[in-house]
Write a structure and sequence with these properties.
A hairpin with a 2-residue loop joins strand 8 and strand 9. The protein has seven helices and 20 strands. It has three domains: about 70 residues, Uridine Diphospho-n-acetylenolpyruvylglucosamine Reductase, domain 2, CATH 3.30.43; about 120 residues, 2-Layer Sandwich (Uridine Diphospho-n-acetylenolpyruvylglucosamine Reductase, domain 3), CATH 3.30.465; about 100 residues, UDP-N-acetylenolpyruvoylglucosamine reductase, C-terminal domain (Uridine Diphospho-n-acetylenolpyruvylglucosamine Reductase, domain 1), CATH 3.90.78.10. Helix 3 crosses helix 4. The strands form six sheets. Strands 6-7-12-10-11 form a five-stranded antiparallel β-sheet, with no helix packed on it. A four-stranded mixed β-sheet has the order 1-2-5-3, covered by helices on one side. A four-stranded antiparallel β-sheet has the order 13-19-18-17, covered by helices on one side. The mean pLDDT is about 95. By secondary structure, it is α+β, with helices and mostly antiparallel strands. The relative contact order is 0.12. It binds uridine-diphosphate-2(N-acetylglucosaminyl) butyric acid. Uridine-diphosphate-2(N-acetylglucosaminyl) butyric acid (EPU) binds next to helix 3, strand 13 and helix 6.
Length: about 350
C-alpha cells in the first residue's frame, strides 16, 4: 500500500478548492484501513499521533488553502449485499430486504441499484453526490426523505483501539444533518459499511412540495390516461433527478458542495417576531421548533439570489448553493459566505450555520 506525500486535495473535492495533504492513501478493504491507522500511529501504540481525515466523494467539504497537515485516507471499500428480511422470525420484516453497502460505494449507484431491484426507501435520495460512508455522518436528506429513515445499522472501526463496532439506528443519534459521528467522541470512528432496511412493498413518498407539483403537473399524463396509478420507483427516481437538475449546478462545470448552510431552526417566539417583519416567510414544524428555508430568506429578504463576489456566487436557481469558478481560493469563499452570514443576521436576527465541513 502506497502512502503518497503532498497530494493536492482540490481534485478530490467537488468544490475543486484547497491545498495539499501531507500524506495520502487509498484503502480498498479493512486490512488496508488498519495499515493506514498504523501509519498514522507511527511508533506510538497508545493513540494516534497524526491527525487523519476520511475522504469519501469530497462533495460536502471545503479544504483550506493550507491543506491538511496529516493523513488523508480515501475510502474505496466497495460491494453491496442483499439479505431477505422474511427469513428472520420478526413478523414486521415481511417484504423487507436488508441491503449492506460498503463505505466507499457511490451513493447514487447504490440508489440506482435498489430502484432497479424494485426496493423502496432510497428513491427520493436520488442524485445526491458522495459515498455511502458519508451518508450517516450528516444524515443526508432530500425531497422528504433522510438516510436515517432506512438505516438499521452502521459498522465502524474505532481508530484508537482498532475494534469494530456496530451502531444501531438510535446509537447513531441522527438529527437534521447531524449524527454521533460528527461529535468529538464519534470522530474517532471510521465507518466501513451501512445497512439499510428497504421494502418490496410500494410506498411512494410524494409529500415534498416539488415532487407533489411534478406529479400533478407533468407526470400524470406521461404515466397513463387513467391517472390514478401511483408513480413507480423509477418514475420517482427520474422525477427527483429532473428536479435536482433544475436547481443544482453541474459538478463538471462549476465548483460547489451543494447547500452551503443548513436551514435555520428557530423558536416559535423568534418566528413570530420574524413574521411581523416578513409575513410571507414559509415555515415547517420541526419538533417544538420551526425550520425556515434559508433559500427563501436569501432570495426574498436579503435580495442575494445570484449575488457574486469575484469568482464566488450564490447559485441563481438555488441561493443556498455556493458556487466557485476554477482556481478560487478558500479565502475568497470565506469572504462571500461571511458577508452573507452577516447580512442574514442583520436582516433577520438569525445565526446561520454552515452545512459544509471545513478541512484545515
Ligand atoms: N426558494 C426561494 N428562492 C429560490 C429557491 C428556493 O425562495 O431561489 C424557497 C422556496 O420557497 C423553496 C424553499 O426555498 O420552496 C426551499 O428550497 P428547496 O425545496 O429547493 O430546498 P432547500 O430547503 O433549500 C433542502 C436541502 C437540500 C435538498 C433539498 C430538497 C438543506 C440544507 N438542504 O434544501 O440538500 O436537496 O432540501 O429536499 O437542508 C444538501 O444538504 O447539501 C442539499 C442539497
Amino acid at each position: 500500500m502506497k502512502f503518497l506525500e503532498n497530494v493536492s486535495l482540490a481534485e478530490y473535492t467537488t468544490f475543486k478548492i484547497g491545498g495539499k495533504a501531507k500524506y495520502f492513501c487509498v484503502v480498498k478493504n479493512e486490512e488496508e484501513l488498519y495499515e493506514a491507522l498504523d501509519f498514522a500511529k507511527g511508533k506510538n501504540t497508545e493513540s494516534l499521533i497524526m491527525p487523519f481525515f476520511i475522504l469519501g466523494g469530497g462533495s460536502n467539504i471545503l479544504v483550506s488553502d493550507d491543506g491538511f497537515d496529516g493523513l488523508v485516507v480515501k475510502m474505496e471499500m466497495t460491494g453491496v449485499s442483499f439479505e431477505d428480511g422474511e427469513k428472520s422470525d420478526n413478523k414486521t420484516d415481511v417484504g423487507k430486504i436488508l441491503v449492506t453497502a460498503q463505505a466507499g460505494d457511490n451513493w447514487d449507484r447504490l440508489v440506482a441499484e435498489t430502484v432497479k431491484k424494485e426496493l423502496w426507501g432510497l428513491e427520493n435520495l436520488s442524485g445526491i453526490p458522495g459515498t455511502v460512508g458519508a451518508a450517516p455522518v450528516q444524515d443526508i436528506g432530500a425531497y422528504g426523505a433522510e438516510a436515517k429513515d432506512t438505516i438499521v445499522s452502521v459498522r465502524a472501526i474505532d481508530s484508537t483501539t482498532g475494534a469494530a463496532r456496530t451502531f444501531t439506528n438510535s446509537e447513531c443519534q441522527f438529527s437534521y444533518r447531524e449524527s454521533f459521528f460528527k461529535t468529538a467522541e464519534g470522530k474517532k470512528y471510521i465507518i466501513t459499511s451501512v445497512t439499510f432496511k428497504l421494502s418490496k412493498i410500494p410506498s411512494p413518498n410524494l409529500s415534498y412540495k416539488d415532487l407533489k407539483e411534478y406529479f400533478s403537473e407533468n407526470g400524470r399524463e406521461e404515466r397513463d390516461s387513467l391517472s390514478s396509478r401511483p408513480p413507480s420507483l423509477s418514475e420517482i427516481r427520474k422525477a427527483v433527478i429532473e428536479i435536482r437538475k433544475g436547481k443544482f449546478p453541474e459538478l463538471s462545470k462549476v465548483g460547489t458542495a451543494g447547500s452551503f448552510w443548513k436551514n435555520p431552526i428557530i423558536s416559535n417566539q423568534q418566528f413570530e417576531k420574524l413574521k411581523i417583519r416578513y409575513p410571507n416567510t414559509p415555515s415547517f414544524s420541526f419538533g417544538d421548533k420551526i425550520k425556515i428555508p434559508l433559500a427563501w430568506i436569501l432570495d426574498n429578504v436579503c435580495g442575494l439570489k445570484g449575488y457574486t463576489k469575484g469568482p464566488v456566487s450564490l447559485w441563481t436557481n438555488q441561493p443556498l448553493v455556493v458556487v466557485a469558478e476554477k482556481g478560487t481560493s478558500f479565502k475568497e469563499i470565506e469572504s462571500l459566505t461571511c458577508e452573507v452570514t452577516n447580512i442574514v443576521k442583520q436582516k433577520t436576527g438569525i445565526d446561520i450555520e454552515k452545512e459544509v465541513q471545513y478541512i484545515a
